Amino acid sequence: MMLSLVVPCYNEEGNVEKFLSETNRVFEGKVENYEFVFVNDGSSDGTYKKLKNLYAENSNVQVISFSRNFGKEAGIYAGLSKAKGDLVCLIDADLQQRPEVVLEMLDVLNSDEDIDCVTAYQEKRKENKLISGIKSFFYKIINKISDVDFVNGASDFRLMKRSMVDAILSMTEFHRFSKGIFSYVGFNTKYIPYTVAERESGESKWSFGKLFKYAFDGIFAFSTMPLKISTFIGFLSSLSSIIYLIVVVIQKLAFGIDVPGYATLVVLILLIGGIQLFCLGILGDYIARMYVQTKHRPVYILKEHLEHDNEEDN
Ligand code: UDP
Ligand code: MG
Description:
- By secondary structure, the chain is of the alpha/beta class.
- The protein contains 10 helices and 8 strands.
């Protein structure tokens, strides 16, 4: 049985060597056959150089290099598609996800042949209270409005059998939201708790803005609820305008009260205009996604693939 470790790297020059040596140290005598699939996601620091050295020195290292930064989701997709293992583990390059946990995952997977995937989730989030509150809120919402289940705190850090990897690769959508894809493909998943270690070197690439975009990607990729909400809001506003009209007509006919003038009109125009724009925006977002998808753009563009058995691939 061979294990592939898929490692997306974006500006991780301070981590990749340590990641490899730590993993080798932890795996020694415990895991026999494994490979590293490093994905250099358009790093602008010395990551590529370091990876090239690791490739030259180790026969079990593959390096995939993108032509620019395509994001972690694209990195995961590329890594999975080049991984040769019967088991594949997704793991970050910064050693926040410890190789020791991979051993635990292997134990759990081997303990029951029915299990297809072992996912690590963070028991306690070591982050800003506000961010973790927003994340919990996001999981509540997305679980309510989408057909797939999302586990709060579950990371991309997971070990999967080949059958699950192939199922993930069969989903070729451009806007990739792995957490949703993992859940969508199904398979028997077991969750184990883990504690996130401190980052070895460098900084997290997640800004507040990126997290926000990620959350919206998740909602728009796995739910059509926003469209339904916009239909509902449209219905409510039409209904209220009809009621308003009836009230005004009754007032005029029964009590002789004149229709209130400009103020109401302006308020109504703003209200209805706002609702229409809001709903159009939601519709527009889905159309934009369809537009990008119909162009069949690749999820990533490969600049170089370093692989030992298959040199002509380069
Ligand atoms: N990463 C990537 N492309 C990106 C951003 C991040 O491949 O555009 C990688 C990064 O190098 C790391 C992993 O994804 O190995 C997780 O990123 P990070 O540590 O910044 O996220 P956090 O641990 O803070 O969630
Ligand atoms: Mg990290």
